[in-house]
Amino acid sequence: MVQHAACMTYGANGDFSERQGVDLASVLPLDSRRVTWLDIHGMTEPSALEPFSTSLGIHPLTLEDILNTEQRPKMEDFGDYVFIDLNMLWYDSEQGVEAQQVSFILGSRYVISFQRGDVDVFAGVRERLRSGKGRLRKMGADYLAYALVDAVVDNYFLVLEKLGEEIEDIEEALIANPGRETLRGIHHLKRELLHLRKSVWPLREAVGALDRGESALIQPGTRAYLRDVYDHTIQVIDALETYRDMVSGMLDIYLSSISNRMNEVMKVLTIISTVFIPLTFLAGVYGMNFRFMPELSWRWGYPALLGIMLTVAAVMLAFFRRKKWL
User: Fold this and answer.
1) Taking CA 215 as the corner, what is the angle to CA 207 and CA 23, rounded to the nearest 5 degrees?
2) DSSP summary character for residue 91
3) Measured on CA atoms in the order 293, 299, 303, 308, is the torsion positive or negative?
4) Same-domain pairing of 290 and 251
5) What is this structure's pTM?
6) Same-domain check for residues 174 and 250
7) Do 96 and 130 belong to one domain?
8) pLDDT tens, 208-236?
């Protein structure tokens, strides 16, 4: 089942055509003189790709990988075509980092892209093709594949930007008044960064293999651009590792803050207990009510004892302050 399919074709002489909601079988056979980009949304059944597997020689394992939504990012060279499988990430304000699988089949004069969800990062590539600006319509299918992969990688920077804003918010909360919500936010960020890391590291391997591969479908001029995409993946990894270190440091700061707060509470309770120890001793001594206690019948005994107790408390508080324990 295919929910939506769009087809763009263009040539070096400037001709361009676009069709929406096309039937997959209607685009076959592909025009060998023009570059064809077929963008498919919502592929759920292998039978929908049978015309391509027959006409273009797509391997059954490739079709299986396209339909497997839990596929690890990778690149495979089958000679007549190159299969690229990536994770496209975006940031949702409520759910956090979301991902969907994006697959590409690169042939000599065609690129077929497969998307699962409604989020689409290829709008910029479409506009460049429609306007005819830049070199996209002057280059081959390999350059189109590079542009699509580059759009996926560039969207990682937008996700990192949103995560950076979350980190800043949690840092402010750590300084102001850390609580359980702050701790939950830190653990949420750690999960998001771990999820992002699982997508980025295989992405680096896939892009690197695409650049270093010996496929004749990728022209030497395009490999320079693929190296640029590889550099972008390295930048994403560096930023990701920096964020992970920051979040780990934030967790340490949170635990230290809670520990310091508990130490302050314990210090106050300890000082109160220390002040009342001699006062409790004096009250205990003069609360025994022996008959022949010297001060028992003294008229000023009670005020004098209160005065002694206040003096002892004042002296101890002054001592604590001098020691800077208060």
Assistant:
1) 80
2) E
3) negative
4) no
5) 0.75
6) yes
7) yes
8) 888 787 788 888 888 888 999 999 999 98
Sequence-ordered alpha helix ranges (H) in 111-216: 123-131, 141-176, 180-212
Residues 6+ apart with CB under 8 A from 217: 81, 82, 106, 107, 108, 141, 142
Per the CB < 8 A criterion, the answer to whether 64 and 74 are in contact is: no
In terms of domains, do 109 and 170 share one? yes
Asked if 170 and 42 count as a contact pair (C-beta separation under 8 A), the reply is no
CATH number at residue 310: 1.20.58.340
Which residue has 């651009």 as its token pair?
225
Residues 251 and 271 in one domain: no
24 and 77 belong to one structural domain:
yes
Q: Assess whether 187 and 281 both reside in one domain.
A: no
CA of residue 244 relative to chain centroid, distance: 10
CA dist 125 and 135 (Å) reads: 11
Q: Report which secondary-structure segment, H or E, holds 86.
A: strand 82-92
CA-CA-CA-CA torsion for 235, 237, 241, 244, nearest 10 degrees? 110
254-285 per-position pLDDT tens digit: 888 778 788 888 888 888 888 888 888 888 88
% pLDDT > 70, the chain = 96
Question: Do 186 and 68 sit in the same domain of this protein?
Answer: yes
CATH of the domain at 127: 3.30.460.20
What is the predicted pLDDT for the residue at 322? 84
- From 213, 234, 257, give the residue that closes a domain: 257
Task: Give the torsion sign (CA, 295, 296, 300, 306).
Answer: positive
pLDDT at residue number 319: 85
275's enclosing H/E stretch is: helix 220-285
> How crowded is residue 293: how many other Cβ atoms within 10 Å of its Cβ?
13
Domain count, the chain: 2
Could you say which DSSP state residue 80 is in? S
Q: Is 151 helix (H, G, I), strand (E, B) or coil?
A: helix
Which of 257, 278, 312 is a domain's end point? 257
Q: Which domain holds residue 179?
A: 4-257
The whole-number pLDDT of residue 44 equals 57
Q: What contacts 246, CB < 8 A, 6 or more positions away?
A: 167
